[in-house]
Amino acid sequence: MQKILIVDDDAANRELLESVLELTGFSVTSAGDGRQALMEFERISPDLVLLDVQMPILDGFEVCRKLKSNSGTRLTPVVLVTALSATEDRVRGLEAGADDFLIKPVDRSELLARVRSLLSLKAFTDELEQAETVLFSLALSIEGKDPYTEGHCQRLSDYSAYLGERMGLPLEQITALRRAGVVHDIGKIAVPDAILLKPAKLTPEEFKVMQQHPLVGERICRPLKSFRLVLPIIRHHHEKLNGTGYPDGLKGDQIPLTARILQVVDVFDALTTLRPYKRALSISETLEVMDEEVKKGWWDPDIFSQFKQLVAGLEDLNSMMGNGDHLKATSAKRM
What we know:
- This protein is an alpha/beta fold.
- The chain has 14 helices and five strands.
- It folds into two domains: 3-125, Response regulator (Rossmann fold); 145-320, Hypothetical protein af1432, CATH 1.10.3210.
- The protein has helices spanning 11-23, 34-44, 60-68, 87-96, 108-144, 152-166, 171-183, 193-196, 204-210, 213-221, 231-236, 257-271, 283-295, 301-320; strands spanning 3-7, 27-31, 48-52, 78-82, 100-103.
- Helix 3 links the parallel strand 3 and strand 4 (78-82).
- Helix 7 (171-183) packs across helix 12 (257-271).
- The chain is elongated and about 75 Å long.
C-alpha cells in the first residue's frame, strides 16, 4: 500500500484529505507542523507528501527545500497545497523543489488525479533505483573476487567526482562520474577468472579478452536511460590521448571529457596500489610516473594538472589530521 504524508496545521484540512485518500486505498499519516513533518517523513518514508505552505515553526517552502536538498529524500514527490495563487508564490515553490501544486479548497477529482500521476512516476523512479542498485552490487561483487581490489571502485567514484567539481562540471556530469567510478569495470564479469586474477603479465591473447570489458560493460548498462552519461565513461576510460588506447583508439578531444577524468584517477589508483607482481608506489613516485606518461601523450595534461592540485590539497588535509596514508590505496586493478 502506497504511503502519503499530509502536513497541515489546520486539523479540519488534514481530516478532509485523510478521508478522501484513505477511502481510495492509500495509507495516510499526518503532521501538524513542519518540524513534525520531517520527523514523520524519517519514520515512515512516504511515497508522496501533501504539504501546506503557511505553517508555524517551519513553513512548507522550507520543509520542501530540506527534503529536496537531501539525496536520500529528494526523489519523493512533494505537492504544495496552498491558498496562495500569486505567481511569485509558485516561483518560490518551484525554487524549493515542489513537484506540483494544489489550490485550496482542494477539488477531490483533481487531488486524486495528481496524486495517482505522481505516485506512478515515483514507482517508475523506484524501479530505476533498484536497477542501479543491482548494477552497483554486481560491480562490487566483481571487485570482491580479488583481495587486491578492495575499495578501488569507491575511491574512483569519490576522487573523480571531486575532480569534476574542481573543474566546474555540471551536476549531471559529476553524478555520472560518481556512478561510473563504481560500474566502470562491470564488463569484467565476462572475463574468465584465470585471466582476471592472473598474478603475472597477460599474454597478447589474454589481453585481447581483457580489452573487451569496456564494450561488455557498456552493453550491460545501456538499458538504463539514467546511465546515458555514464556509458561513454565506461566505454572509453582505457583510451589514450595519442590514440593507442582501447577499445576504439580515440585521440585527443574525441575521448569524452568525463572519460579522461576517470582514466587519470584510475591510473593513479592502480599505481598506488599493491599487486602480486609489484609494490605500491608512493604518491610522489606515482605523480612522477604519470608526468612521464603525460609527456608520451597518454593522459590529458590539463586534467592531470588539476588532479595534482587536488591530491596536494588532500595530502595537506591528511597531514593535519595525522592520516598521511589516506590516499595510498591498498587494492590493485589490471590496466
